[in-house]
Amino acid sequence: MQAMRFHEIGGPEVLRAEEIQLPEPGADQVRLRVAASAFNAADNGMRAGFLPIPIQLPHVPGYDVSGTVDAVGEDVHDLAVGDAVIGFLPMEGDGGAAEYVVAPARSLTAAPSRVDLANAAALPSVALTAWQALFDEGGLQAGQRLFIVGAGGAVGAHAIRLARRAGAHVIATASPRSASAVRAAGADEVVDHTRTMLRDAVAEPVDVLLNLAPISPEEFTALVPLVRDGGVVVSTTAFMTTPGDDERGVRAATVFVRPNSARLTEIVRLVDAGDLAVDVTRRIPLSDLPALHAEGAEGRIAGKVIVVP
Fold first, then answer.
1. How far is CA 81 from CA 29, 33, 216, 255, in A?
2. Could you give phi then psi for residue 281, rounded to 5 degrees?
3. What is the Cα–Cα distance from 195 to 40, expressed in whole angstroms?
4. For residue 192, how many C-alpha atoms fall within 13 Å in the half-sphere facing its CB?
5. How many CB atoms neighbour CB 230 within 10 A?
6. What are the φ and ψ backbone dihedral angles of 16, each rounded to 5 degrees?
7. What does each C-alpha distance from 60 to 31, 92, 94, 274, 283 come to in angstroms?
8. Could you tell me the pLDDT band of residue 27, with boundaries at 50, 70 and 90?
9. Cis peptide leading into 58, omega within 30 of 0?
10. Closest to 216 (Cα-Cα) out of 197, 241, 233
11. Are 36 and 95 in contact (CB under 8 A)?
12. Which one of 31, 187, 204, 238 is most buried, by most CB atoms within 10 A?
């Protein structure tokens, strides 16, 4: 089968297409015929060596995947050959940038029925990140105020939709390029961060501050006074410490997204109910993955890109 792998840490040029042996599922595993994988910034980080996830080389990137079950290992009872599924694969293992991938059955759930199977690869990790940030870490509740910094990406869109569905008031920052998409996702207030200082973007205290943007530690710390006493600051930017305020009881939490098939099943239900959307900017063939990694390394990727074998 064809797969895109890297044998050493380095730039996008270390990625190369190879013919490798078809993997066989072990106990509690299934093999998928891949419909698509999704590109994530962490794929770049693992390839370049600045994200400390213990991968084994050679490595196939693409931990978000959609596909059809092709073979089933022992002790798998909830999935069968022919099932259409999506999953957030263990990041230390081989991913879905290939024609086939072996995955733990527990990492998969039935694919949404109202979304093209290939496009559904764009859903798992970004939607799980948004859910875990808002509810598992942020404890967001109906009637609360949420301030999302850097809401223009895929995680931001899911966070807005989930927060609005939960009954929260959402203030979101965006660039002029992404403002219309942020507004369409349902933000109550949209702040142009190119024209407004972030610390001036909120008129009254918020209950939860969610940072999704690569702002400086100084900028991030300056936003903490916007959070009410007893509120929460949540961040997905694992490269820096999330600030809080112990004197005012403002808790700090950093999200490291975790696989959760039960939560992913609930997310799929929301997609099929029309409460969440799967937004895909473009599709590329597997052979173009090195060029996509180069775009990602330069910060030139807008929206969600899926890779089709």
1. 12, 10, 48, 34
2. -80, -45
3. 28
4. 5
5. 10
6. -150, 145
7. 15, 10, 5, 33, 18
8. very high
9. yes
10. 241
11. no
12. 187
Looking at the DSSP bridge assignments, the partners of residue 100 are 33
96 pLDDT exceeds 80?
yes
Residues in the chain, total: 309
Tokens for 13?
């040029």
Model confidence, pTM: 0.94
In this structure, are residues 307 and 39 in contact, taking their beta carbons and an 8 Å threshold? yes
What pLDDT does residue 50 have? 86
Instruction: Please tell me what DSSP assigns to residue 250.
Output: B
- Give the C-alpha separation, 297 to 256, whole Å: 21
Contact status, residue 200 vs residue 138, Cβ threshold 8 Å: no
**DSSP designation for 214:** -
Cα–chain center distance at 167: 23
Q: Please tell me whether residue 235 adopts helix, strand or coil conformation.
A: strand
Residue where the block lists tokens 């999935």: 79
State pLDDT tens for residues 113-123: 999 999 999 99
Q: Residues 59, 89: contact at Cβ < 8 Å?
A: no
CA gap 97, 90 in Å, rounded = 14
Please report which confidence band the pLDDT of residue 300 belongs to, taking 50, 70 and 90 as the band edges.
Answer: confident
